[in-house]
Structure formats: structure tokens, C-alpha cells
Amino acid sequence: MGGLEQTAAGGAAPAVATVSHDTALCIVPPRSLWPRIDRLRSRYDKAYGKWPPHVNLIYPFVQVDALPRALELVRSAVQGRDPFRVQFGAADVFRHRHDNTIFLYDDDEARREQLGRLRQAILVALGARPKDAGGYRMHMSLGQSEDVDESWHHFLLEKARLLPGIEWEVDELHLLVRERVQVGDSLSAQMKGWATISLKDGTIYQSATLQALDDGNLSIPAPEAPYNYDGGQGWKKISPDRTFPETETAEDASSTTLAVATYNVLAEFQYPPSHKRYPLLIENILSKKAKTDVLALQEVTDDFLSYLLADQNIRQAFPFCSHGPPNQEDVEPLPSHNNIIVLSRHAFEWESVPFNREHKNALVVKFQGLGRWDDADFTPLILATVHLTHGLKDGSIAAKKSEIDKMLKYLAQNYPDHPTVLAGDFNITSSAYTISQALERNVVSAQAATHLRNLDATFTRNGFVDAWTVFQLEKGAGPDEEVIEFALEGEQGATYDPTVNALAAEIVGSGFGMRPQRIDRVLAKGDGFLHVLHFNKFGDVTTEANGESGPQTLYASDHWGIRTVLKLGFETESTRSATSQLVPVQSRTAKGALADSEALETALQNAGAIPSDEDIRTRAAAFHLLKGVILDTSSSEPAQSATALIFLPVGSYGLGVWTLSSDIDCLCIGPFSAPTFFSLATERLRKAADRGVRIIRRVKANTGTMLELDLQGARFDLQYASAQAVVELWPAVLRFPTSHAVWRLSSSTLSKLRAIRDLDYVRHSVPDMTKFARAHRLIKTWAKNRGIYTAKFGYLGGFQITILLARVYKLLARDAALLSVADVLATFFHHYADFAWKRNLVFDPFFHKTLNYRRTDREPLAILGYFPPALNTSLAASTPSVRTIAAEFKRAASLLSEESMSMTWPKFVNSDGTFDFLRGFRSYVKIDVQFWGGSITKGRGFVGWVESRCVSLLVDLNRRAPALHARFWPARWTEKSEDTSVLPHRAGTPAADDDSGGDYQGCYLIGLDKLKEDNMSTEDEKVMYGTLLSVLGRFAEQIRGDTRHFDAQSSWMSASVVKAAEVGSLQVDRREWGKYAIGEDDESDDEDGEDAAAAAQNHSLGDEYEDQNYAPKKKKPARAITNQPRAVVVPKPEGAGRFRTAADVLNRLRWDPSLDSADHVVGYEDRFLGAMEKALDAWKLEQTHEEFIPQHRILYFKRKSDGVVVWERRTRKDLLFGSG
């Protein structure tokens, strides 16, 4: 503004000096236009709250004491003038020394000149003559920027240009006066209205007191209508009084599910913004995995929203949007650079809840047709979406806490009984590693870190549940979400993962922040009305783009989006059946030295329960070596890839809870029979002997054959399951329900597959496997030390511990109890110390929603697994073993109680149960086992047989002498004087080639005690003792009478009752007794008559072998003569060698890369047409297939290229194996 020269000429009134910055003469738009202007001013104009939206005519104006006189002079100058229109639709910038002012102005020259003439007339009336009339430029300030060259300046200037024109009729002038108010230690000043002057008639409206002109309503959330796409007219804001068709609201009200998604799309921060990610963002939003009813977006800019809402598919998917496209003439720009936007299929209204920090707010959406009906009362569903303050410093954590508190308080005050969904980018650092590193480097204080960890508990106290946690607990992570192999505590379910997402890695840079974080969340609160049905991530659709260093993968955003499907409605009684059988878990907190997590970690390391990095690398290398050998990945034959084989780790290694003493359990799944697999696998394993691969022995188990292997010092157990349909549908088959046809397999096959099915569910359903593994390892170590670890003796095995822990851990996670590993363990032991094992079932309530399991009287312990064929994993348990388990849990809980403040984790872990066992009973049952001379393989079988019968002895003792408590220690004992270093066969120790020598002597012990509740007389005790001796005598006779396992020439066993003094010199025999000859049973399992296959044609391929090959051979009854076509099973001629089965040949032709399956046909007996031929590749193995033909009808296999019959049943010809 140009300077003014004060004059007083002739008889004119003396000049009134315009030198005061406490007064101003200006024009002010109508209040109805203020929100449009102040939505930007409130964020960018430092004068917001001090000045109303205005255009200064004269500023500075006159001194306050000169206002009455100046008011009359101004009225004389404007009286009789016609009102005129102004339109502020253009934007520009004033450059100052330290900052810049971005403003609106009227770009119509005629209107500018009209306003200039008015100003000139007023100045003349005041006696002032402008030195430079052209220096005045009419403007309305919107905000300030620091540097005109920075992107922030250009983004703000662009917002000003996107603002729809501010147009009104100027019919009065406003005279403002600054009022100063003392607020605490500082002065606050605000320009307030003192008077107005009408242009039309010069009327002056003056108030007795200054009138505030600020727009305080902006800080109070007010309902806003969304935009709706209206065809050719673009996006139009819905009128507040608009009513929706009854069909539309009825459709909403009848909805039984609601899909809610949230996605941080990553704003562009460089001007002009790049559009290269925009198509990819839309592709991800419209992807099948992101299909949703409501979508909350964070970091949305004006430029991206304009691009997004121009997409036709977006308009069809989401007819309603909280904001319109800023590039549309009648639509305002978004208030901030990073904004929250809500798109929806359902109509809604929304309000903005401001937070304390600038540019931070929440959007609260109220749906008009979605909600809960209580008789005739309708309670709308609420969606609150947030983008909390980013950062891991004290200030940002305090800001997050404040924002969460304000959001929850707002919901509690305004929507206390509404079903509510809270979604968005919470920016809550979840990785325990990141937090610990920040603490170590003093980036964050301990108090702030505690506040951060307690944020989840805040949501729980307010009734919210985490959709990801609930879904994972119940269903496991989605099929698209792999468990992060090396995830640390708090990193599972990560939605921001710089280890995978290159865009996130570029933003994070390096350091301890380069860890996965679960910062995007969907929370729900519905008091039983909202139920999580599904949860998944999206946003992984990428494309290739040219970068500075060549082609690179372009990610849509640095975040993954998340989507949850909610069921709307209350549960029925039938869905609560399992819950009624659930024993609740009360969380406990570890006290004193037990709260020290580092001490717990050290105790586990000293006990060998936590493998070192070197151990992990060694076992991983051994596993990959075995996998490569079995799958023959080194083969250059192209036909190899035609055969699908699934090779998987199961057991403790697959679950990630293994210890140094654990074997690595592996399961191979394939389309061919078990004999074929083990025959070829053995061949390949032997060829790899020079790579450190050694077959220890072949075991015949109830579930089939198992190979015990040694690879470079690591012990492996390899099993195989024949299931072609499972292989073909892998890995999606793991998500198929148990009722699916693919699981219609024999019990033996299902038993093997259950290992991977159970493992997969546990890994995907436990929220934090790192913390779970720590707790699991301690419990396993404790159970071993206390003599209650080994499932075959009725105690706890690894999987039973998994179920027990998973149940407690998941129930704690559901309640969002932020517990350390020590707290989880304290809760675990106290919970099961009070558990009524005889009455209650142990089951995972998140998996068994409805539980129809009926427990029999013969099941003293019921720990239910997940998948069939048998749910109860503790069928070997006996009443004495359960009594022992219960006693040990009570003892552990007592040690970990608050009263036992001297207890530490090293003491707890290293508690030697053998010491207590040898001194805890007055008498013992001693089962002596001795073997001398002969084959150690035979001796080992004898010892194993005795060991396996000990459980039946316990059962018999409990049945015949119920007043007696018998505790079996699950290990062999030997005299301390014996050299137990002999035969310490462990992984890596070569097995002896000679299996014809060696002696062994050891024993098993059962502690005996009277039950405290039984008051027995002396006579009763004598009777009980006689019964005891009778049971032991009968047991010994049964063992010695079994000629299959017992040979009096080389072995002996006896069972007697001894006093405690007689066992004091014993110690646990930790030797793995026995030497095994390589491949001792290689061929025995293959002796398989195909008569059995004919009789077992109702089984799927491979099951007939698993059901019969590994069972003792029994004489088959004579077949009845029928009217069926002639039999194709040929009896074995006397003196002939073993003849390979059709199944072996079929699988060899399909699996062997050196043979061409397409060059072979199968000759078979048709029941009606006689001998027929069919291409081998067209031969169906699945029993359920309409073209399935039982394999006992196969007559021959013939090579098409030369007509040679390579296998024929009638003549027992076999050119493939050379058998027959």
C-alpha cells in the first residue's frame, strides 16, 4: 500500500491521520462464505483467529479516539453509492523479506477500479492524499509460505487457485478495532467489529461493545454431506434435506456384512506431483483383494483425488465420497496437503474432529442405512478414520496418545451405544526390536516407550477389538500373507515393511527403523453386534518401471492396504456352544526377578533351549540339502519338473520352537505310493553319501514308514503321504474346510497330513510367533526336567504344549493384554494349576467355534487338536499321568507366585526333577531290562517293546489299585557306576557297520504313593500290596510270553517293588542306545501282494500300501466265487521272486525322469468289454473321478514306440525293476 500524505486545505476539515495499526476499514464477505475461506486460512494463515476473512480498504486506519469523527467522514464519502459485486477467483503471492503472502484477488479490472474509486473517495474525505494510488492492490490473504522455490509454496498457491470464486455484493463497510486480552502470561489481540456503514444510505450500525468476528464454529465438528456422482453434472454435494429412495436404504438396512478397507496411498511431496503411481494405486484399490463397501484413504492430495474421482470404475464402485474432486469448478480444495478421504457404496454423513496438531484430524462417518435395529429404534453404524502423528520420539508419542484419547472421548460422548469401526494409519511402532533400539540410543525415553506399548490396551479398555488379531486367532493369516520367517516380536501382520517394499525402504533409509511394522489397523466395537469374518492385505500389485539404474519394481505405496469383512448382527445360541465350555484365562504379571526378560533369555540359552545363529544356519543348510536330494533339484532332466512333490518341515522345526535336542521332522507329499517314494528316496539318499547324507534306519510306525537320517550332524525324521489332489491344489488346499472332498482320504494319510495342517494353522493364528516360541521353549524345558515330557507315556508332548500355550496366548491376545513372555508364562502356569483336567476340555476356542466332541470315560485327559482324524491328542494319557501333570503345574505355579519372591528363571528352568523323583516316594516299581549278545537291532526292539507296555501297566495299576498313585518317569535309568559314555549315538556320530554285538542293562521306575484322600487300614494296605504284586507278575509274564519280542536266550526283564534306598544310586541313562545297520529294512516293506490291492480298491492310491504293507502279514481268507469277470490277480508261482506291483510300475513311469510316460499305455480288464488299452497319462488315480479304474484290473504296461510290453501280470514280466 502506498504512503498517505495528510493535508488540510482552506476551510476543509483538518485531516485525520491514518497511522494506527489497531484499526482498519475493510470489506468483509457474508458469514455464509467464511467456512470456504477459513478451511484454508485456519491451517495456513497466521492471522486466522485474529482477523476475519477481509479485504482492507485502509490499513493502518485512524487512532481509536478519532474513530467517531472518522466514521462521519467515511459516511459522507460513501453515502448514496450503489452496492457493487466482487469476485475473488484468482490467486497470487506477495513476496516479503522473510516470508510470502498467498492471497485471492478479483481479476476483473472494472470491479477493481470501482473498489479503487471508493477507496480514493474515502481517503479524500479523511483529508489524506495518496502518494501512489497505483500501489494499492485489493487482496484477501489466505496464508503464508517461507520460500517461493519450495514445493510447499507451490502446493499452497495451487490450493488457492483451486478455491471456487468467492463472490458477493458489497453493501457495507466494516470498521474493525483491535482488542487486547490478557491470557495467562501473554497478551492476545483480535480485530473485532466496532461499526458498519451502509453504502446505500450511509446508515451507521455501531455496537456498545466490540463484536467478535472469528469463525469459532470451525473447531466444533459439524455434520457434512458427502459428494455423489451425478453423471454429466459431475460430483455434486448431497443436499442436507435429500431423502434417499426406500429401496436404497432398505438394501443398506438388510446388509448382513460390511467390508471396510483402509489404505495410505503416500502423498507426492514434490511439485509438480508425479502421476506415475496413480494408475497403480487405482489398480490396487479396484483389485479383488481390496473389494470393499467402505474405503478410508490417508495422505490424499488434491491432485490424486482429482485423478481418482475421474476414474469411471471408481465412480461405479463408490458412488459416495466425503470430498469432491478439487479440479471441479464448484468443489473446494482439500484443507491440507495430506488428507483423509472416505469412499463408500452406502450413503452417509460425516464430520471432522480436529486434533491439537496442525493438519491433524479424524473423520467420523455416520451411515444412514447401516446399523443396529432394537425393535423400532435404529442406531446407525459409525466409522471413525484417523491418520495419527508419525514418529518414535517423545513428542510424537505424546501427540499420538493425545489424538487417541480425544478420538475415543469424542466417540464416547457422541456415539456411546453405536456399533463403531475405527480404521486408518495409527503410526504405532509395533516392532519390539525398533523400540528397544530407540531406547538404547536414547531416541525415546522409557516413559514414552511405556506409553507407546500401552496404546493397544487403551483401545481394549474402550471396548475395541483388533480385526487382524481376531481373524488371526480364529482363522489364521490369509493365504496371501506368509508368516515372516525371521519376524521379531510385534512384526507379524506388518502393513509397513521396508524389508519387502522398496518404496518403504527408500523412505526409511537405514537403521533400526528398517523393520516390519503393523501400523495400519481396523478396530471394531459392537457389544456382540460386529463380528470379524475375514481380514486380508492388499496393495501388492506392482509394475516394472525404468529407474536411474535400469528397470525396477514400482510399488503403488509404501503401505499395504488392509481390508476386513464384518458380520452385522448378534450371535445365535448355537454359535455360543463352544464358548460355554471355555475355561476363562485370568492374566498374571510376573513379579520381582521373574519380570526380568533378559534373565529368562539367558536361562533358556544356558539350558540349550535357544539355538545360536550358527545352529540356525547349520540346520537350515542341512534341511535345504535334504530337500535338494529328495527333489533331485540338481537334475538336468526336463522331465523332472513334470512330477510335483511337496517337501515341508513339520514338528518343532516347522513351528520354529525347536531346541538343540530336537530332530527335524520332514513331510513329503506326492502323487505316488509310499513304496515307490521310499525306494527312489533311498536310492537318492545313498547317492548323496559323499555330501554328508546318511540313512540311520528305517522305522515301521503305526502311521507308515519313516526314515531316520543324519545330514551333516543334524538328525532328520522323514515321512511321506500319498495325496495327489493335495499336491495339485497346494498351497490353497490348506484353507479348504475339513468337509471338502479333497480331504476324503484314509485315516493314515490324514494323520500324516495333520502335521502340516495343524502347524500351518498355529503359525498363522498366533499373533506373535517370536514371543510364543520363547514361552514354548521354556515350557518344554521345564516339562523335560520335571519328567512330564513324552506323549507316548501319557504326558505332554511338543504338540500338546503347543495347544496348551496357544489357547492361553490367544485368549490373552484377544483381550489385548500387553504381556511380556514372563507374564505369559506366569499366566500359563497359574491357569493350568487350577485347571480341572478331569472335567474340562483343553481346546482352542478360536478354531472350535462349535464343539461337538464327546469325551469318553477312558479319556482322563482331553487336549484337542485342530484337524481329523483324531481330535484328542492325549489318548495315551492315564489317570496317574494326569495326576502327575496336575501336581507339577501346581508346583510350578507355587514357585512363580507372588509369595515366592526369591524365585528366578534360572532356578525355575534348571530345577532337576530326577532329584525330587528319587526322593519323593517310599517305594518304587523297578522294571529291569537286560540284553546280551545277538543283534542290537533285535535288542533295541525288545527294549522298545517293554517301554511301550509301561503305559498299559499304569492303566492296570490304576484300575486294580485305585488308591495307589503311580508316577512313571519317562526315561531309562542305569547305575551311576556304569560308563554312560559308551554308545552315545547322537547326530553326527557314525553308526556302526556291525550289528552283531553289545550288552545293555537298565531299568524303568514308577514311584508309588498312597492317595492322600484315602484313609486305609493296615489290612487294606496288605491287600493293595498283594494286588500290586499280582499286577506286576502278570505284566512280567505278558512281556516274557511274547515270543515275537522276547528271547530268553539273549534278554531278560523283571518287575519288582523296591524301597527308595535301592534306587538312590541310579541316574537317567541319556544314551541313545543301539547301533543301526544302514538300510536294514529297505526291502522288507516292499513285499506287497497285489491281492491286497485288489481287496482294498476302495482306498485311494497309496493308501492300500500304508494300510497293509506296514502291518503284520495275515493269512487271507479264501475268496468266494462270484459272477464278476475273471480275476486279474495272478498267484505267485512257487519259488518265484518278488514281483513289483502295478502301482510301483505306474508311479515309476510317471516319476522317473529317464522314462517318457507319454510313450506308454496301460492294458486293463474292462468289466464288460474285456481287455482294453488307455494312455498312461490319461490314467486316473483319484477314486472319486468318474474314469477311475481299480489298479488290480491292470494287465500290462506297453511302450508305444516299439510295442514292447515292459510289465505283464500274467507272465510276471518286469523290464523296469527286473523283479518277478
UniProtKB/TrEMBL annotation:
Compartments (UniProt record): Nucleus
TM region positions: none
Q: Where is this region: Disordered?
A: 1077-1122
Assigned EC number? 2.7.7.19
Compositional bias (Acidic residues) spans?
1079-1091
Q: Which InterPro entries match?
A: Cyclic_Pdiesterase, Endo/exonu/phosph_ase_sf, Endo/exonuclease/phosphatase, MJ1316, NT_sf, NuclTrfase_I-like_C, PolA_pol_cen_dom
Question: Where does the record place the Poly(A) polymerase central domain?
Answer: 772-898
Identify the residues that the record assigns to the MJ1316 RNA cyclic group end recognition domain, covering every copy.
1139-1209
GO BP annotations of the record are: mRNA processing; RNA 3'-end processing
User: What highest taxon heads this organism's lineage?
Assistant: Eukaryota
Ranges for domain Endonuclease/exonuclease/phosphatase: 261-559
GO terms, molecular function = ATP binding; poly(A) RNA polymerase activity; RNA binding
Alphabetized UniProt keyword annotations: ATP-binding, mRNA processing, Nucleotide-binding, Nucleus, Transferase
GO CC annotation terms, alphabetical:
nucleus
| The keyword Transport appears for this protein | no
Pfam families in the record: 2_5_RNA_ligase2, Exo_endo_phos, MJ1316, PAP_central
Which family would the database say this protein is a member of? Belongs to the poly(A) polymerase family.
Q: What is the protein name for this chain?
A: polynucleotide adenylyltransferase
Instruction: Specify the species.
Output: Cryphonectria parasitica (strain ATCC 38755 / EP155)
